[in-house]
Write a structure and sequence with these properties.
The protein is mainly alpha-helical. The chain is about 70% helix and about 5% strand. The chain has 6 helices and 2 strands, in the order E-E-H-H-H-H-H-H. A two-stranded antiparallel sheet has the order 1-2.
Length: about 160
């Protein structure tokens, strides 16, 4: 059976490898941020206030992603190697932590600013959806390539698999 071996790195800048999932995460953050700011501007909200909210939301989302990953997978790092907790470039982010901490930061920021919470949250949902879709796109591609390599697999995907070969 053929299983596609996808390179996790899109490219390298010197000794630093840029992962595909990192590219997709940045695309989701930028796309969702652009949508939120433009939608807010159309409805008369201050783009600077929205940018500040987004900055803190993204930062706390990254912190939450790492905290949940460490607590769920490597809790011993807290006592044995606390510096390892900060090394996010070695991998280990949890999307549920990013969403949880990001939503809490978003909510906290909106409580402190005179913006309408319900409207802003409605505008943020497409960005959250983009982040989920773009985060899981590499996983979906890998699964499709695995299905195409599986000789026992038949059905409507067979024409698409032929096109990939």
């Amino acid at each position: 059976m053929y299983i596609a071996k996808l390179n996790p790195y899109a490219f390298h800048i010197g000794p630093v490898g840029v992962h595909w999932y990192g590219i997709f995460m940045v695309m989701a953050i930028l796309g969702g941020s652009y949508y939120l700011i433009e939608r807010g501007r159309q409805l008369g909200e201050d783009p600077d206030a929205l940018s500040n909210i987004l900055l803190w939301t993204v930062l706390w989302g990254v912190v939450g992603a790492r905290v949940v990953f460490v607590l769920a997978n490597e809790p011993q790092w807290i006592w044995t190697d606390p510096v390892q907790i900060l090394r996010i470039w070695d991998g280990g982010l949890a999307i549920d932590g990013a969403l949880g901490f990001g939503v809490l930061a978003f909510w906290y920021q909106l409580r402190r600013k005179p913006l309408i919470f319900n409207h802003i949250v409605d505008w943020a949902v497409p960005g959250i959806d983009m982040s989920l879709q773009e985060r899981f796109t590499p996983i979906q591609v890998r699964n499709i390539l695995w299905l195409c390599g599986n000789t026992a697999f038949t059905g409507s995907m067979s024409r698409r698999c032929d096109a990939l070969r």
